[in-house]
Amino acid sequence: MKIAILISNAGAGTNLKAIIEAVNDRQIRAEICAVICDKPDAAGLAHAKNAKLPIEICQKKESLLPLLKKLGADFICLAGWKQIILDEVITAFPNKILNLHPGLIPNTINDFAANPDGTAGLWNKGMLTEKAIKNFLDQKSTYAGSSIHFLTLEFDFGPVLGRCFEQINDDDTVESLYARLKAKENQLYVDVLAKLTSTKHENDEIRNNSYPVKNEDLLYRDECFKIMGILFKVYKTQGGSFLEKHYQKFIAELFKEENIEFREQVPVKLKFNDKSLGIFYIDFIVTIGNAKIILEIKKHENFGPKNIDQVRSYLKAANLKLGILANFTHSGVKFKRIVNLY
């Protein structure tokens, strides 16, 4: 699968950089066929050059359509692109052009997207980034947010692929608020592309998430499919607003319904240099055939290094090979496979 990324001379190209890193890490299962820019002096081009990616300069809006057709991209990512996108480009690539908008686009045109606290999110239709961030502050919104959507002929509206939120502080300025929101936008773009580029699978929920299935040699691949199917079913029926302990209960019930063998809150002793550090409890050890897999559940928007280190410690203590770290968020289930290499 191929993606083309369109940038301009606005900003430093942080979305491009995040996408390049995620492609290299195989979080995004695609190749970047080209980085397209309308200005040859754009700062973001440095990221493309460092990654030795093909670069195309497209200074006329009329030249974009033939260029995209030549490249044969499966998805086209607007990442700071300022040039007008002609209607002929949008109609030629329906549900293929991704746009990042500095506002909370609703699912239907007469509705609104809710903030995490239930208040109405601001759409900021027709606003560029700086004006949009200022509008969050001027309107005294509780959250700022951005959306990634498919580009359509309706301005600043289309099928929403993901949203991110940042709580607004009393002393926030445009600069301080956008600095925090920008980091979440970078991660949102990676998450959305990971879902879109994942290999098709008979389970629709797995197909729409970022589980890499091309590699036939993945450890416990099929067993992981079954576990992830349970997690996606929980999110589909329960959403992303419950506490960690509630998701553990939901998962346990589905394991029982599917006759999947598991143990909950499994105690393990952690040691360092033969010194006991105490007893800790693994959320689940799931047994499918000959595979024993640790499943650790979290309720955050992003994984932290401590979460990953925790699963690695559990794997060593339990002498198991594979762990799944699953994170229930407002935008879906995120997960990492963690292999015990020791």
Automatic annotation (TrEMBL):
One of its GO terms (biological process) is 'de novo' IMP biosynthetic process. Keywords: Purine biosynthesis, Transferase. Gene3D superfamilies: Formyl transferase, N-terminal domain. It comes from the Bacteria. One of its GO terms (cellular component) is cytoplasm. Pfam families: Formyl_trans_N, PDDEXK_3. One of its GO terms (molecular function) is phosphoribosylglycinamide formyltransferase activity. The keyword Transferase applies. Residues 1-193 form the Formyl transferase N-terminal domain. Its EC number is 2.1.2.2. Pathway: Purine metabolism; IMP biosynthesis via de novo pathway; N(2)-formyl-N(1)-(5-phospho-D-ribosyl)glycinamide from N(1)-(5-phospho-D-ribosyl)glycinamide (10-formyl THF route): step 1/1. This is phosphoribosylglycinamide formyltransferase 1. It comes from Candidatus Doudnabacteria bacterium CG10_big_fil_rev_8_21_14_0_10_42_18.
